[in-house]
Design goal:
The chain is an alpha/beta fold. The protein has two domains: 66 residues, Chemotaxis Receptor Methyltransferase Cher, domain 1, CATH 1.10.155; 194 residues, Rossmann fold (3-Layer(aba) Sandwich), CATH 3.40.50. The chain has 13 helices and ten strands. The strands form two sheets. A seven-stranded mixed sheet has the order 6-2-1-7-8-10-9, with helices on both faces. Strands 3-5-4 form a three-stranded antiparallel sheet. Strand 4 and strand 5 form a beta hairpin. Helix 1 crosses helix 4 and helix 6 crosses helix 7. Bound molecules: S-adenosylmethionine (SAM). S-adenosylmethionine (SAM) binds next to loops.
Length: 274
């Protein structure tokens, strides 16, 4: 594969998902695009680059993006945001006006550990209360990964990463060698395919948004664009959680860090009023 062919593949990925692949990531193409070559009967990455250059092919482009997204995730990943949410939930629940659901969005949910971690905290905070409706929306660009997430089935290895044994016993059922999320918890989460680069206004407003470990793959202008779109989806007293290596600083002044809470951001009071 020459530089032009690499640039062609990287260009498709960037245009469609925002993910920036620099030339030091050429190995990723080698390792991840093998199945795409077989599926589309292409002899080499060069042939793939040439095919993408010749004419737009929705199915092929989508498959390339799916193959090059990274889906690493784990239950209660990085701890802190979930500790903060657990503290916040009683206030959010008691502050609901009747009929208004509490809305939480996991905006790059991957295989589902993040929205199901949120659902476990919500179930614990509700403690059987039925007078508060909670909606958890989980979205991702990858249709394949969402199909997996919807099943709510995890391996022993996956449940051993970050999930306290108490939560495993309470919220999962053993299913052969795997673990299946309890139906009442599964029913709390709605999965939907969404690209963070597209118009998100139809999703409405959320009390909290988790958008973690995806901005790291974007360039600065794309991070700004996505952060500002998320700020518009956040209620005035809402909280946005980012990943440990992500920040709003230097990217937008619509969001401000919540003092003392690593990875948690609120809507800037000035900007909310504007
Ligand atoms: C590394 S995972 C993070 C999962 C989870 N948020 C966490 O922190 O554990 C990144 C996810 O972002 C998704 N993604 C990448 N680009 C996206 C985009 N433009 N819109 C929506 N999701 C995207 C990928 O498909 C992948 O599932």
């Amino acid at each position: 594969m020459n530089n032009e062919e690499f640039a062609e593949i990287a260009g498709v990925v960037r245009r469609r998902s925002g993910i920036v692949l620099t030339s030091d990531k050429a190995y990723l193409l080698e390792t991840r695009l093998g199945p795409i070559l077989s599926r589309f009967k292409l002899p080499s990455l060069s042939a793939l680059g040439q095919k993408l250059r010749q004419r737009p092919d929705e199915v092929l482009e989508r498959a390339v993006v799916e193959a090059l997204t990274t889906h690493e995730s784990s239950f209660f990943r990085d701890g802190k945001p979930f500790e903060h949410l657990a503290k916040l939930l009683p206030r959010l629940i008691s502050g609901r006006s009747p009929g208004a659901p509490l809305r939480i969005w996991s905006a790059a949910c991957s295989t589902g550990q993040e929205p199901f971690s949120i659902a476990m905290l919500v179930a614990d905070a509700l403690a059987g209360r039925t007078d508060c409706r909670v909606e958890i929306l989980a979205t991702d660009i990858s249709a394949e990964i969402l199909q997996r997430a919807r099943q709510g089935v995890f391996t022993q290895f996956e449940v051993q990463r970050g999930l306290p044994i108490r939560s495993l016993v309470k919220h999962f059922r053993q299913d052969g060698a795997k673990w299946r999320i309890a139906p009442e918890l599964g029913a709390m989460v709605r999965f939907e395919e969404r690209n963070l680069l597209n118009d998100l206004s139809s999703l409405g407003r959320f009390d909290t948004i988790f958008c973690r470990n995806v901005l790291i793959y974007f360039d600065a202008p794309t991070k700004t664009r996505v952060l500002e779109a998320l700020a518009r989806r956040l209620s005035p007293d809402g909280v946005l959680y980012l990943g440990g290596a992500e920040t709003v600083l230097g990217l937008t002044d619509r969001l401000v860090p919540i003092p003392g809470e690593r990875g948690a951001y609120g809507v800037s009071a000035q900007k909310a009023a504007a």
